[in-house]
């Protein structure tokens, strides 16, 4: 049984999910400097192009090779523009479980891209990779992320109290850490059987023999 994810491209009606490439450096750096992303993630602040290059050329390949997870660029099918990221982390190959998270560029929000990309990834995990559980964790105040989890069929399992560190702007323009709760969600293969047709219809998978 494999213990690493393959280099994969997943296509949907509107999106292509693929491995990150160095051509994504400028767009990734711009996206990750968004205030909302800085508030809900632990990415470096500011997020420089060197930070983006290190993520793409070092961090993401190392995570996949070690079997820990997978990072996928989410791009528009028609324009090939980077609209977000899908990350798989904390992967347990014995249990066949992984944690999924998503980030969407500010200009692309409100289009349903996070739901479409997350559900397509889950379908690939359950189908091609034979996974049995996908877990999501959303900060208690991050209602947009919670709406994505609900839309793709996730079940709320409970709260991890005081387990999340979010970030807020200070009066001097810097950032300060604040503690909040994590809401834990799960998605099982049977949970997506009734997903909306336009979400559930993925275009297919393409494996790359060697990426990064």
Q: Can you write the helix and strand succession as a string?
A: EEHHHEEEHEHEEHE
Determine Rg (CA atoms, Å): 17 Å
Average pLDDT figure: 89
Tell me the number of strands: 9
Q: What's the shape?
A: globular
End-to-end C-alpha gap? 23 Å
User: Roughly what fraction of the amino acids lie in strands?
Assistant: 35-45%
The percent range for helix content is 25-40%
Secondary structure class reads: alpha+beta
The biggest beta sheet reads:
9 strands, mixed
Which residues sit in consecutive blocks of at least 5 with pLDDT less than 50? Answer: 197-203, 208-212
Please state how the strands of the largest beta sheet are arranged side by side.
7-8-6-5-4-3-2-1-9
How large is the count of helical segments?
6
Protein name: GNAT family N-acetyltransferase
InterPro entries: Acyl_CoA_acyltransferase, GNAT_dom, Ribosomal_N-acetyltransferase
